[in-house]
Fold this protein.
Amino acid sequence: MADIAARGSVAATGDSRSSLHKLMQRKSTIAFLMTLPLIVLILVLVAYPAGYAVYLAMLNKGMTRFVGFGNFDFLFGRETFWMVVYQSCLFAITAVIFKAIIGFVVAHFVHNIPSKGQRKWRGMLLVPWVIPPAMSTLAWLWLFDPSYSALNWILAGFDIERIPWTGETGWARFSVILVNVWIGAPFFMIMYLAALKSVPEQLYEAASIDGAAWWQRIWYVTLPMMRNIIAITALFSLIVTFANFDIVRILTRGDPLNSTQIFGTWAFRVGIESGDIPLGSAVSLFMVPILAVAATFILRDITKRGSEV
Amino acid sequence: MAQVTLRKVVKMYDEVQAVRGIDLDITDKEFIVLVGPSGCGKSTTLRMIAGLEEISGGDIAIGGDVVNDVPPKDRDIAMVFQNYALYPHMNVYENMSFGLKLKRTPKDEIDRRVKQAAQILDITELLDRKPKQLSGGQRQRVAMGRAIVRDPKVFLFDEPLSNLDAKLRVQMRTEIKKVHQKVRTTTVYVTHDQVEAMTLADRVVVMNAGLIEQVGSPNDLYHSPTTKFVAGFIGSPAMNFMPCHLEQAAGALRVRLSDTLSFPVPADRTVRYAPQVGKANLILGLRPEHITETRPHVEPNQHDFQNPIDVVEPMGMETLVYFTVAGSEMCGRVNPNAGATAEKPMKLRADLSNMHLIDDGTGKVL
């Protein structure tokens, strides 16, 4: 449509009205107008809050005075901040690795189910990802409950001692990651399944004739063919996981003793619950450089290989 | 030594029999072509030899060992696929050396074999390229190179030329034949193109509906088909088939095509055809090259007749003429200078010494 309108531009006449008319009919103008709603949306919902957060992060607690990098300086000196950096990275990287591995394995199983039953399995396996995380995390909270934990009840059946799922640093971190993996793995599964379907069957046949065992077919054919999907999915998931809030907030609230606190939840604790909004903004801004570095590396790898396959 | 033996091989897909019990002996160093229309079971047969399809019944032996339950990787075979199936993330060298690498062949040995194969196929300067950077013909060479370096017991080709354009196809056909003459590995080649089959094969296996119709040298199949299917499938344009009946007249046999047109049967065939006199369901098979324009010199068993021409197709070195006799369309090959004109009668000559008499009920050539 845009193309037709643009080509239809009428021959030039002198006055300014017709030059405005001409401007409106130019392809780039039309393209700009069509993307305008999205640009406005991004400006209002992304650019403005981001800029405002930067501004807020440079104010004092009462938001009355400009303090420059004072808040950041203060954070660098606090032990809890470095704990949060460590925990955020641990949480995001471990969760993404497990989501990727589980997603890959499950995708392989589903891929090998005859197509008749496959839809059913695909649907069922997607359930954890489809349920709103706040709700499913509540269910997990009850499973982990110190007094009524269903998991502990099952373990008791095998004469295994009660596990303090959310009460002890190690277990709390484990539980938070477990729930995140449970929710996020189906996304990897569905992405990998789509990628698996796009690998031509004959490559596997050629590989098996070349003498490759099943694990060599995965290593030499599947993985290289899926590299870009794996990288993109990992990057996407890394960003979302790193910025996670709901799971940790509902499951542990960052406790015990801030040992499961990550950027999102700690920024909330500092900014909203403790009433220091500028400091909270400063905390949340730290996610940007860390994610930017990860994104640069992963995306550079993809563009490098994009031309190969 | 790698002969391939198929004994009563059957392939079932659920209730459908794709291959219905075939027997085939392929001798060492032989170039065998399986040819037939789509769905005749030729690719399935090849894939069963490769181990990519399970065998529902019968035995397949490679080099004397039954391989029914041996996975493809342990059969010591190499296969060239229709769409080449090159690994897109590996360059040509890696593609060709992949099989050897998996077998833990020493590096210098791999290097020697890859370079040697590259030289045979004239792709030495492409070794660093990715498959994406190659043309169709080059990819085809690489796929063959990947097969050659392995030095397998058997080469399997699954319609390797059907993705190439007509000119390249002819060129690669010659190439494949040259390669086989150099490496002399037992080869099983599947195609639906009978010209490919005729030009490449030591022996051609014609398949139809899951069964072998006939096995023989290209010339055997062309000149002495045993069934109507083979007679019609081999040769282009296809053999003319005309309903006919045999009649006895004055001690000689005549094959009658219509009320007005009949030819005497060659004397050396009268004994063979005598029992068919008066039977229904007979078909006369005559190749287009045995219907020509009239010439001054008449050989024995050549008979002239006149018929209006429907369509004329000049091919350059020859002209194809189509005409109708008693409701069936026939094709003849005439000299371009014979003056064939559409919708005009033309004097033609049939050479009955190469006729085939076919029982349409059983499909057998009599």
